[in-house]
Amino acid sequence: MTGTYIIWGTPHSLYTGKVRSYLIKKRVSFREIMASDARFLSDVTERVGHRVIPVMETPEGELVQDTTAIIDLVESRETGPHFTPPGPVQKFVAHLVDAFGSNYMMPLAMHYRWSYREKQELFLRTEFARAVPPMEHEQRLETAGKLMTRFSGFLPGLGVTPAVIPAMEASYVELLDALEQHFRLHPYLLGGRPSLADFGMMAPLYAHLGRDPVPAYLMKTTAPSVFRWTERMNSPEIIDGEYAGYSDSFPTDDHIPPTLEAILAIIFAHWTPGFTADTACFNAWVNDHSNPAPGTLVSYNDSRSVHPTVGWIRYPWRDVVMERASNPHSLWHFSRAQTLADGLSGADANRLDQLLDRTGGRAMLASRTERALTRKDNVLVLA
Fold it and tell me: What is the CATH number of domain 5-77?
């Protein structure tokens, strides 16, 4: 252990929940400080380049933004429990589910928070008030209300409209049921030890869907084992005795639990239509820019954004038509899994091919960007 890390975030933040869970399981020393902190609002925000949470400060004073970068850094430096599965197909699955939870699930989480704002007003306003700079209580609540209205205004750009909400909610119930069946048998997604898959799914399933009153009621009454998993993910213990005979290790022989395969089939069915539309939109943006140089900011209007867009997309999804801003960040995130898949050969490649055939994942894996993406100075750029 090299010292104490600092995380600036909030209890109700989707991505703070992901990093907090990882640091708890990693058993490193860290302090979590609210985003209303004066230093965060001045020095930290200036150095990062925009106001976003979470941001981590290392014991050496380095600032790191983006949950993927934070976990990569701490995992490479600290000697606590490691969460990378040994099998190559297991590694692919961990990166896939991490990208799914961190990207695809975000509009669902936002829907359940803001489409049901009226039913959760007091809880949400109180939570958001904690994240504004210190002032009189009523003034904090008023400021929180303005912040809430700003965030709820993001829904149309995320594709959340009255026409698609029933299909979105049906898809979430389907996923919740598959997760419930899995967590009745296994403590974590890949078995006896958490991985990136678990941390990625903690992003939406804790702060929004497991904590906000309306979706938390849905989870607790229809998928109690999923709710219990969110509690387990915020405990430093790996194995707590709840699952008899389970050791704190990943399955041998690159095994994927059958109940996880059912989840993967849902992931590919739900995400592939939007992912391929995102890929097509990004490739069209690249071609419109006449061979843009490496380091070119990924943005439709040249503005820095944590989650940039390069255009509007429209595609059939389930029994509706989805319309939303494109999400190139999801392409970068899933490319980590694609890169792993490209490096497989022999028996490893055959096992992945068979898994993709069983779960319907070939089309998504084959959807490729014409230019690679990377992150530099806390924004998405062309590699």
Answer: 3.40.30.10
